[in-house]
Amino acid sequence: MELIGRMLDGSLPYDVKAVLRPSEGPTVGQDEKIERLLEVPIFQGCSRRQLRAVARIAGVFDAPAGAVLTRVGDVGREFFLILDGTARAEVSPRKRVRLGPGDFFGEMSLLDGQPRSATVVAETPLRLLVINGRNFHYVLAEVPELTRALLATLSRRVRLAEKSLNA
Ligand code: CMP
Q1: Between residues 20 and 5, which one has the greater pLDDT?
Q2: Ligand 1 centroid to 32 CA: how many Å?
Q3: Separation of first and last alpha carbons in the chain
Q4: Quick check: 165 pLDDT over 70?
Q5: Of 109, 117, 132, which is best to mutate to test ligand 1, by the most ligand atoms within 8 angstroms of its C-beta?
Q6: How far, in Å, CA of 45 to CA of 50, rounded?
Q7: CA dist list (Å): 25 to 35, 57, 61, 63
Q8: pTM score, whole prediction
Q9: How would you write the chain as a 3-class SS string?
Q10: How distant, in Å, are the alpha carbons of 42, 103, 127 from that of 143?
Q11: How far, in Å, CA of 57 to CA of 70, rounded?
Q12: What's the 30 CA to ligand 1 centre distance in angstroms?
């Protein structure tokens, strides 16, 4: 129990898969996954073929409140998209960003191969769509809407960071 507690609060090295459990049993059907994807704004304009491609390679997982999904400095291996619940990105001691349904995180390390830039913690129980690093690049190629959403999000973060530097 203590071991699990320390894995959840991030004080021990861990594999994020230890805090993720498959949502609603070991297999979520393709149709159900596609229905879930359609609830996420960035996937609403996608074709059935694109959605099938994402559903094939993405997993739907649950994580309990308090789970550490990414930890600053760790190697990043997964991309996460929040289906239900809220998480907080601890970007610096003074900067916390709340993430909710439709928001994603974990893309930065997969894009540039650098360690995780922030610790992301589940504030409530989360339902997540999880894509591993290798498949992430395939999804970006298959779903340009996701690439556009990523670029818009990264641009917004640069603007906010510049604003706070100049404030
Ligand atoms: P990554 O660096 O892979 O892992 C931590 C994640 O936190 C990061 O990807 C982003 O998805 C997210 N993150 C980092 N900085 C911010 C920020 N300023 N605002 C929102 N999310 C962030």
Answers
A1: 20
A2: 28
A3: 45
A4: yes
A5: 117
A6: 10
A7: 17, 17, 10, 13
A8: 0.87
A9: CHHHHHHHHCCCCCCHHHHCEECCCCCCCHHHHHHHHHCCHHHCCCCHHHHHHHHHHCEEEEECCCCEEECCCCCCCEEEEEEECCEEEECCCCCEEEECCCCEECHHHHHHCCCCCCEEEECCCEEEEEEEHHHHHHHHHHCHHHHHHHHHHHHHHHHHHHHHHHC
A10: 10, 16, 22
A11: 20
A12: 29
Whole-number Å distance between alpha carbons of 41 and 39: 6
- Closest-CA residue, ligand 1 atom 8, reads 106
Structural contact between residues 72 and 13, judged by C-beta atoms closer than 8 angstroms: no
Atom of ligand 1 nearest to the CA of 119: 5
C-alpha distance from residue 100 to each of 44, 89, 123 (Å): 17, 11, 10
**In the structure, what pLDDT confidence band is assigned to residue 33 with cuts at 50, 70 and 90?**
confident
Question: How are beta strands 104-105 and 78-84 bridged, if at all?
Answer: antiparallel
- Mean pLDDT over residues 24-52, rounded? 82
Residue indicated by tokens 């289906």: 83
Residues comprising the chain, all counted: 167
For residue 160, give the amino acid letter. L
